[in-house]
């Protein structure tokens, strides 16, 4: 019913860190969808609720912060060091600025998900709060991810040198040395 993903952390097939970031966007969309489905899953079996909540907590408290760091600490500084058109520079700065409100909203959702990990039967009580927060998360992610994909990732592939991309890849791997995967 909740269609929880069962993949574990693994090294991506591509060697291009921009492709890795793009792949992560797919996972962000998938997990945002799981959050919405969970909020609307009253009557779902407790084990499904528990599993979905665990996956959401893990993804949004471990993997997503790593992704944000990849963009803020590895990608953005290298792009901003280039002579960028004003629109692109504005998009890079906006990307960084938007991470704060996204993570603040996730901070509101995580306690609900943690409760459901321990007491999945509380979904009936938590659903009225979870529904609007989960929808809001998907709603703010949509333009954020689209802007990154259309403007920033395209610019990175066009403007960054092979050595810079290799450095980004190395930094991304180093952030995940604890086995968190991509």
Distance between the termini: 25 Å
Largest sheet: none
- What are the secondary-structure elements, in order, as H or E? HHHHH
Mean pLDDT rating: 92
Shape annotation? elongated
DSSP strand tally: 0
Determine the number of helices (DSSP H or I, runs of at least 4 residues).
Answer: 5
Runs in which pLDDT lies below 50 for 5 or more consecutive residues are 5-9
What structural class do helix, strand and pairing data support?
mainly alpha
CATH homologous superfamily caption: nmb1532 protein domain like
Describe it.
- The protein is an all-alpha fold.
- It has a single domain (about 15-175), classed as nmb1532 protein domain like (Four Helix Bundle (Hemerythrin (Met), subunit A), Up-down Bundle).
- It is built from five helices and no strands.
- The longest helix is centred in the C-terminal third of the chain and has 37 residues, at about 125-160.
- It is elongated, with a radius of gyration of 17 Å.
Features:
182 residues, mainly alpha, Four Helix Bundle (Hemerythrin (Met), subunit A), 5 helices
Please sum up the structure shown.
The chain has 182 residues and is mainly α. Helices cover 78% and strands 0% of the residues.
């Amino acid at each position: 019913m909740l269609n929880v993903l069962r993949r574990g952390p693994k090294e991506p097939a591509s060697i291009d860190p921009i492709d890795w970031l793009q792949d992560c966007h797919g996972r962000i969309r998938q997990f945002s969808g799981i959050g919405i489905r969970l909020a609307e899953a009253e009557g779902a079996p407790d084990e499904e609720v528990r599993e979905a909540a665990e996956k959401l907590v893990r993804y949004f408290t471990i993997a997503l912060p790593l992704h944000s760091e990849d963009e803020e600490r590895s990608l953005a500084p290298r792009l901003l060091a280039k002579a960028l058109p004003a629109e692109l520079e504005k998009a890079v700065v906006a990307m960084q600025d938007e991470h704060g409100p996204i993570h603040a909203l996730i901070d509101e959702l995580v306690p609900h998900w943690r409760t459901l990990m321990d007491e999945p039967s509380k979904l009936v009580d938590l659903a009225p709060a979870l529904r609007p927060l989960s929808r809001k998360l998907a709603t703010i992610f949509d333009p954020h991810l689209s802007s990154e994909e259309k403007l920033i990732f395209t610019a990175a592939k066009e403007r960054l040198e092979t050595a810079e991309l290799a450095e980004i890849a190395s930094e991304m791997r180093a952030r995940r040395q604890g086995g968190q995967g991509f």
